[in-house]
Automatic annotation (TrEMBL):
Gene3D superfamilies: Dedicator of cytokinesis N-terminal subdomain, SH3 Domains. One of its GO terms (biological process) is small GTPase-mediated signal transduction. This is SH3 domain-containing protein. One of its GO terms (cellular component) is plasma membrane. Keywords: SH3 domain. Residues 6-68 form the SH3 domain. The keyword Ion transport does not apply. PANTHER family: DEDICATOR OF CYTOKINESIS (PTHR45653), DEDICATOR OF CYTOKINESIS PROTEIN 3 (PTHR45653:SF4). The keyword Ion transport does not apply.
Length: 132
């Protein structure tokens, strides 16, 4: 039996998820999901990156829950994650780098791929001196 979530409203995907069942939501690592309902070990929700795609179900264990504030509870609720702006910016930057790395790898630009792999790590470790 599905019940509306009270506390579990938003999370970050920690493991890719694909299934042949038509009601599931395809998830990719790093994606943010808004959670609407829950049942034993499963959530129903949608990707905040692709809100136009229908909602679907996914394993609760594939999502790391984040604290959030909720206004207008119900059908038109607005969920806002509670995060430090530095964390938000760092996450966004690393996600952009992930897309770029994937493009380099797919295009077989292995030398450039390997040369650039240390840049995001040094940005995170030395964020004050980073020119990202």
């Amino acid at each position: 039996m599905w019940i509306p979530t009270e506390e579990e409203k938003i999370g970050v995907v920690i493991c890719n998820f694909r299934s042949s069942v038509c009601q599931t939501l395809v998830l990719e690592i790093g994606e943010t999901v808004q959670i609407m309902e829950k049942t034993e070990g499963w959530y129903r929700g949608f990707s905040t990156k692709k809100p136009s795609i229908k909602q679907g179900i996914f394993p609760a264990s594939y999502v790391h829950l984040k604290k959030s504030t909720v206004s207008n509870r119900g059908v038109c609720e607005m969920v806002v994650p509670l995060e430090d702006p530095i964390i938000t910016e760092t996450t966004s930057t690393l996600q952009e780098w992930g897309v770029l790395w994937k493009q380099l790898y797919v295009k077989h630009k292995v030398d450039l791929f390997h040369k650039l792999r240390h840049v995001p790590q040094s940005c995170v470790m030395n964020d004050a001196s980073c020119a990202c």
